[in-house]
Amino acid sequence: MFDNFMTLCAMVPLLIFTCLNSFIHQRIPQEVRIMGSLVAIGLLFFNHRDHGEGCHGASSLLHLYYD
After folding, report:
1. What does each C-alpha distance from 43 to 15, 33, 50, 53, 56 come to in angstroms?
2. May I ask which residue range the UniProt record assigns to the signal sequence (predicted)?
3. Comparing C-alpha atoms, which of 33, 16, 15 is closest to residue 24?
4. Range(s) of the domain holding residue 27
C-alpha cells in the first residue's frame, strides 16, 4: 500500500494528533481548551520580549530558528 516508508512516517504524527484531539474534545471542557490554546500562542509569540527584541510575529520565529 505504501511505496515509501517515509510516507508512512509522515502520517504517524497526523494519526497521533488526531487521536489526541479526539481524547481532548471528549474529556476537557471547551473553556479550558480555549485558554490553553491562548496561553500556548502567547508563549510562542511573546516569549522573546524578555530579551528586549519585542514581538515581530513570524519574523521572531525565523529569528529563533536561525539563532
Report:
1. 26, 15, 11, 15, 13
2. 1-22
3. 33
4. 5-66
Contact 29, 35 (CB under 8 A): no
Number of residues that this document lists for the chain = 67
Please provide the DSSP assignment of 7-20 as one string: HHHHHHHHHHHHHH
Count of structural domains within the chain: 1
pTM attached to this predicted model: 0.46
Q: For 38-49, what is the mean pLDDT? A: 83
Q: Which amino acid is present at 27?
A: R
Which own/partner contact pairs does 29-33 have at CB distance under 8 Å and 24+ positions apart? none
Report d(CA 4, CA 2) in Å as an integer: 5
Digit-coded pLDDT (tens) for 2-14? 578 888 888 999 9
